[in-house]
Specification:
The complex is a heterodimer of chains A (301) and B (255). Chain A is built from ten helices and 14 strands. Chain A has 301 residues and is of the alpha/beta class. Chain A has two domains: 212 residues, 3-Layer(aba) Sandwich (Rossmann fold), CATH 3.40.50; 77 residues, Alpha-Beta Plaits, CATH 3.30.70. In chain A, the strands form three sheets. Chain A has a six-stranded mixed beta sheet with strand order 6-7-8-3-9-10, sandwiched between helices. In chain A, strands 2-1-4-5 form a four-stranded antiparallel beta sheet, covered by helices on one side. In chain A, strands 12-13-11-14 form a four-stranded antiparallel beta sheet, covered by helices on one side. Classes of the chains: A alpha/beta (301), B mainly alpha (255).
Chain lengths: 301, 255
């Protein structure tokens, strides 16, 4: 079942179109990485899903039901983790989670639920006011308040962007625990994290999705086209010989060899035959596995 | 709404705002009759310490001086404190970045805003009840009489005026982007309406600024019931209009 569907969504600020005919479909139970540069429109999309801002045109549906700005009920299905969570300074974690449960009409057995969530995010036995928390602690509390009412979908807006390495690891570890249990819509520009936790990614560029697939498929697609070759000759000589074969689209000297991108995958055997004919002694022939970061940069530059 | 009220009351309680307003009202309620009763003695004491001739001698104080003193303290000091506190309450979540997390939950924006108004109004009501009781008792002890009905009228008219000022502060909290601008504009409106209080022509006679005049008329027993009712109606109407535009603006507000 589709957890979140966005159809032809548009949003402008002061006549500048920030979201342009955006279409998205996230399946129940998947971890979807919503990646894009700063200013690509990630937070705007999330704000539109949460009705924090008004859309211009388009539709947003959650589990098949269309979302309307004036109706708040659908938010019971959502847990939201902002990039920099701000909490009321006069409350402690327990108070805030109690308030959250109260808002969601879910106060039965609230004490044990709150303690369970505080333990889940490693904030148990902490009675200090939230104003004294570190950024990492606030981010973990943000996750706790997002999960306390047991939502169906977790929307996370760059939850690790403002954290130190330890805080980032803590948040990713929590996400790994949740993987498979919740639908997670994970917006970020930290691409190492995406590879670890996401099933599928969508690259948002200038307000629209320009690439969307599973991490496996994307890597395969880019992986199959690139190889790194090393021979006994110098990289310069090897590069010149490869150019003569007329089988590659792009090539560059790299790490004592040449990294090439084929015009199409079927030309790899042809290249090898040609090089052998030219009496080139090949010592290494490896397919290049691109990182998500490389794919992202390739698509957005 | 109850849940939001709980949230707002926790804030008012833990930041001591729930105690400050009643404390100030009780202080005025206690000091005002004393000041009214012993104003001549105070002036004499002041003159003897400075060594000069008596500057002014006031007629013997009456119970009306006690009422007048309390009302002027409420309208001049209590209300100004109220302006700055109310603006801070209406703007706090917006300015401190609390709104995205709060409104990501199933919270109706209208109820959210009304909850802030209601919690603040309850604090003022509690303050006026506490202040009114202390004032009535102090005045009775010092002047041997008290018109309880007049104290109730005084408190109700003041509450109405406070609501009007809260409506103004809510309005500017929605239509401006920072605390200073909203506070200054609310304060300007307060001053302008205080000046309007001196006008008695046309619709101005029934504007919120005339509430103090209505109370003075009640105090001297020269109250005109239709004028009093119209003043209440016009004030309520202007207040409701300001609330309406504030709520509308907040509902259209993109975070």
């Amino acid at each position: 079942m589709s957890a979140l569907t966005i159809v032809d969504l548009n949003k402008s600020f002061n006549d500048v179109r920030v979201i342009k005919d955006l279409n998205l479909n996230i399946q129940e139970g998947e971890v979807y990485g919503f990646i894009g540069k700063n200013g690509a429109g990630k937070t705007t999309t999330i704000n539109l899903i949460l009705s924090l801002i008004h859309k211009d045109t388009g539709n947003i549906s959650l589990f098949g039901n269309e979302v309307f700005f004036t109706e708040q009920g659908y938010k019971k299905e959502i847990g939201y983790v902002p990039d920099v969570p701000v909490f009321p300074s006069h409350m402690n974690a327990y108070d805030y989670l109690l308030f959250t449960l109260d808002i969601f009409n879910n106060i039965d057995d609230s004490d044990s639920r709150i303690k369970e969530m505080l333990k889940f995010v490693s904030l148990e036995n902490n009675n200090k006011r939230i104003s004294s928390y570190s950024r990492g602690m606030k981010q973990r509390l943000a996750i706790a308040q997002a999960l306390i009412h047991n939502p169906s979908i977790l929307i996370m807006d760059e939850p690790t962007s403002a954290l130190d390495p330890q805080g980032r690891k803590d948040v990713i570890d929590i996400m790994m625990k949740l993987k498979g249990q919740k639908t997670i819509f994970y917006s970020t520009h930290i691409l190492d994290d995406v590879e670890r936790v996401c099933d599928r990614i969508g690259i948002l560029h200038n307000g629209n999705i320009i690439l969307e697939d599973t991490i496996e498929n994307l890597k395969h697609e880019f992986y199959a086209r690139s190889v790194h070759i090393e021979s006994k000759s110098s990289p310069d000589v090897l590069l010149e010989k490869i150019k003569q074969t007329n089988t590659v689209k792009k090539l560059r000297k790299e790490n004592n060899g040449v990294t090439i991108q084929f015009k199409d995958e079927t030309r790899s055997n042809e290249l090898l035959k040609e090089l052998i004919k030219m009496k080139e002694e090949i010592v290494s022939y490896k397919q290049v596995v691109p990182t998500i970061e490389e794919i992202f940069l390739k698509k957005t530059q | 709404m109850i849940k939001l009220l709980k949230y707002d009351f926790i804030y008012l309680w833990r930041t001591y705002k729930f105690l400050i307003f009643p404390a100030v009202a009780v202080l005025f309620a206690f000091v005002s009759p004393l000041t009214a009763k012993y104003i001549n003695e105070l002036l004499a004491l002041l003159t003897s310490t400075t060594g000069g001739d008596p500057l002014i001698t006031l007629p013997d104080p009456t119970i009306l001086d006690s009422y007048g003193q309390y009302v002027s303290n409420l309208y001049e000091i209590f209300l100004i404190v109220g302006i700055f506190v109310s603006v801070s309450i209406f703007m706090r979540d917006k300015n401190k970045g609390l709104l995205p997390l709060i409104l990501s939950k199933p919270i109706n924006r209208t109820k959210y805003l009304l909850s802030k108004l209601l919690s603040l109004s309850v604090v003022i009501l509690v303050s006026l009840i506490a202040g009114g009781m202390v004032f009535a008792y102090s005045t009775w002890v010092l002047f041997d009489s008290i018109d309880v009905l007049l104290v109730i009228w005084m408190s109700l008219l003041f509450l109405l005026y406070v609501l009007f000022i809260f409506a103004v502060s809510m309005f500017f909290s929605q239509y401006t982007k920072n605390y200073a601008a909203a506070s200054i504009l609310t304060f300007i409106v307060y001053i302008v309406f205080s000046i309007f209080g001196g006008f008695e022509k046309g619709i101005l006679e029934y504007f919120p600024g005339r509430i103090t005049s209505r109370f003075t008329e009640l105090m001297f027993g020269i109250s005109d019931t239709p004028t009093l009712i119209w003043t209440i109606v016009v004030t309520l109407f202007v207040t409701a209009l300001l609330f309406f535009f504030s709520i509308r603006k907040f509902n259209k507000y993109d975070l």
